[in-house]
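Practice problem: Homogentisate 1,2-dioxygenase
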Amino acid sequence: MSSNDINENQLKYLTGFGNDFQSEDPRCPRALPEGQNTPQTCPYGLYAESMNGSSFTAPRGTNKRAWFYRIRPSVCHGPFTKYEQPFLTDNWHAFPASPNHPRWQPFLLPKDTDNVDFVDGLRTLAGAGSAKDRRGCAIHIYVCNQSMGDRAFYNSDGDFLIVPQQGELNILTEFGRMVVAPGEVCVIQQGMRFHVAVDGPSRGYILETFEGHFRLPDLGLIGANGLANPRDFLTPVALYEDRDELPDYELINKFGGSLFEAHQNHSPFDVVAWHGNYVPYKYDLRKFVPVNTVARDYCDPTVFTVLTAPSGINGGPAVADFLAISERWEVTENTFRPSYFHRNCAVEFMGKITDSPSQSATGALPGGIQPGGAQMTAYETAHGPSANATEHAFREELKPTKVFQDTLVFFFLSPLNLTLTAFGQSGCGVYDDSMHESWIGIKKHFNPTKRELALPTTV
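Answer key — structure tokens:
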């Protein structure tokens, strides 16, 4: 089944506003019980099971839950034992935080002779807080070249926001199937079991939050329209697997920052019907509606926010935000069009999904990272356009210009002090500490006797 076939049957999902949805596999019509969640016997001999994504007493608008009607309940597995995966870690506490600018060239894909699936291909770059304390967030990458086979994964610590950069992910969840390609993102929320199949080398980025859930940002003065539209979020339809008498199906659980494994003799993807507002979902970043300045100056980067994960503090900063920057028009007049130089009270992690050489040449985003690479700026560390981009911006003819053509860049933003892991430093083999060189060539133009700056038209 292709991605388009699946999308035509997917439900629309209104992220973060408490809507209740339902779905049942068409092979078992009327599998959803009528009038109650747990009748004495469910249709087709199914078992009822609930999953919560919030406390029982959370307000209605933030109360998250799903009801499953499945062939076997989820309790049917053996005991958990420790699963050793040295690259997925919460050991960032062992290293000092740094105000420097780490940068990574494209993360290395597995060798053809290595068989690495999504679980074994997870690598933690940085984190803050603690999964055990249910506070903070982490940034991972994944690199894999084979499907997961008879194994499933779920995360008890928090939500995964997955950003593919190379290779399509065919993700089977308890709710159904999602195909997520580069240029799309998906969110698999806390506790949801899933399986990832790939067709060749695959790479991408993951933002994990240990508290709260992702939702659409409030629009405020923007009004009802703009940014990501709720109607463009998709969630799967029910699709069950009735596979049993399996020799050794493996269930991997991320719990308290570590991995554990249990074994069972059947597929966990045996949900025939479900309803609720706690579901996995995907979004096509090409549908994002940019908000832009049309007269002068430059908007703060928050206008590119796709999803936000609020903290538990009412009115406080988010745990993390996800921003996407793609093709748009620049039309401002008498304006320094690249982003201004700035120091923010947030860590900025930037990754690149696609790139256009003509856009990269402007250097509007410093560091020159390539698709599959990344860079990070600590909070209150100064940054901005490169020396070449600055000089170009002083001289360019300010006519309407389409920027970021065939280029897709994203940011993970967090007010937390994200600290690199051992892999994020020397362990990844692509660490680069030369990003500061982007600004070494910035020139002094100050002249106290001339208010108007006169520059030649060429650099």
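Discussion: The chain has two domains: 84-285, 290-436. Students who identified this feature from the tokens alone can consider the problem solved.
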